């Protein structure tokens, strides 16, 4: 029986993603494959301890739109975090007039916040499916999206997991989503991307604290 050396080697460390917040941004082209990949990623995120409330899923029309969407989602999560931190102060006013006695009121008391639900994203999984056609369209999109997503993670410091399948045929795409039409169903790469998001999210947190294995 033929063997292969391809595939993600499992991390030796136990991955605990319970403190992480992860976004999945996906295209809608080739929906049946996309849906399977998303399901695979979410399965592994949850198995690694990421709370369902900390998994955010956003969609865009196609893979070419992924870089802009990922960039804006990361920026938006930082705005959420900053807003949450301000709310936790209870609307404190540090101007001189704030020293004057005021009637006690609870009208400005912030509503309870779900822990972690407004924290900045620790990782983003970008999912798309590109299948080669009869024109150069495939090559242009693959190249542009790949470079743009890499630039985003380097510029922001937030891991962007490259979940864009670049398949030459329909069958290649199906097998990489575990949907193979023949006896060989293939492997759902979305599961690998979910695990990679947790591992990289934890790594970046640790590295930011100056801790190395």
Automatic annotation (TrEMBL):
The lineage of its organism: Eukaryota, Fungi, Dikarya, Basidiomycota, Agaricomycotina. It catalyses: (2S)-2-hydroxy-3-oxobutyl phosphate + 5-amino-6-(D-ribitylamino)uracil = 6,7-dimethyl-8-(1-D-ribityl)lumazine + phosphate + 2 H2O + H(+). SUPFAM superfamilies: Lumazine synthase (SSF52121). Its EC number is 2.5.1.78. Belongs to the DMRL synthase family. The keyword Oxidoreductase does not apply. HAMAP family: Lumazine_synth (MF_00178). Pathway: Cofactor biosynthesis; riboflavin biosynthesis; riboflavin from 2-hydroxy-3-oxobutyl phosphate and 5-amino-6-(D-ribitylamino)uracil: step 1/2. It holds the Pfam family DMRL_synthase. It comes from the Eukaryota. GO terms for molecular function: 6,7-dimethyl-8-ribityllumazine synthase activity. InterPro entries: LS, LS/RS, LS/RS_sf. The gene is RIB4. Catalyzes the formation of 6,7-dimethyl-8-ribityllumazine by condensation of 5-amino-6-(D-ribitylamino)uracil with 3,4-dihydroxy-2-butanone 4-phosphate. This is the penultimate step in the biosynthesis of riboflavin. It comes from Marasmius crinis-equi. Keywords: Riboflavin biosynthesis, Transferase. This is 6,7-dimethyl-8-ribityllumazine synthase.
